[in-house]
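User: Some background: our group keeps a shared notebook of sequences we're curious about, and every so often someone picks one and asks for a predicted structure to add to the entry. Today it's my turn. The entry only has the sequence so far, pasted here. Could you supply the structure so I can complete it?
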Amino acid sequence: MSTLTVEPLAGDPAPFIAFPYRRYADSPHWVPPLKLERRDFLDPRKNPVYEYAQVQPFIARRNGEVVGTLAAIRNDRYGQFHPEEAGVGFFGLFETVDDPGVVEALVQAGSTWLRSHGKTVMRGPVNLTTNDVVGLLVEGFDDDPTLMMPYNPPSYGLLLEGAGFRKAKDLHAFELQAEECQGRFDAMARRLLQDGRIRLRTVDLSRWKEELEFVRSTYNVAWARNWGFVPWTDRELAFIAKELKPLVDPRLTAVAQVDGTPVAFLLAVPDAHEALKLARGRLLPFGLARILWKLKVQGCSRIRTMAMGVLPDHRRRGLDALMVHHLITEATRLGYRAAELGWILEDNGPMLGHLAHLGARRTKTYRVYDRAI
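Assistant: Of course. Here's the predicted structure to add to the notebook entry:
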């Protein structure tokens, strides 16, 4: 007789971390994260998210074998910045076999925990905040995910909807083919730059701390009114920046200045998922060598935009399009095939308009779901 149990994760997180590697063993597109990184991510002593959020992972087993995972998340900062949604709790790190019974059991365990913490809505997937990996892939299953973007089977959306979840918001990713969009914004770029008031420069890695502070403050102001946004804490940004700095190529960055004052930025990096996929989740014995070979010798074929922000007083001046133009120009010169821009909110009209003018193709859609609890 089959016995299904769902229990809070206690002690060694290895079974929780290991399940996706088995779940996606036959997937041609899933990119295995480094297991050491996953341990740090789940470690309250190392991940600064735990300074303000409570996270309870759950693990589902059938006859002792792991068949699903889910983490329930109480994020107090979200309620501070979105008081009208103080009742929203989150779930993430969701993986499952294709079994509605397993999904329902995991969701019930997570929603019971969230309800005990005063929450009335369960939202996700969010791993573990809206500044990290967000959403469930619902369109675009025939391509690898780029850095810090999720991948899952097509069945996950149907399973969550069967468990009572409904769409809260869609997020889109777009691909720009470098050769196809060359020249489309040349005239605009010349016009914006002609009187000398607007200038573009690249990020100065020798002043990394100062540049990082500008990115943090601009991002937090620029995104303040966006759906689901919660500002980075100083330690969160430092945690993320430590991971990203080795990937940063200043030529794939842009800082827009107006009359000498920085007012906007764009940060893109080579898509390191192309290298991580070769490591198969392990640095040893050959994973590190494979990563370095891909990044330093062969090179990646596409880039991923990580963040962009324009201060409110300087919006609708074309600075975002100017920075994207710079990015594509440099990426083409450096030999990259394509750039993925995302995620972008489904109702971000101005950015969607710029991308349409550039000829960008929407390649992926990620969905965030809600369920009343």
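Suggested note for the entry: The two ends are 31 Å apart (CA to CA). The longest helix spans residues 100-116.
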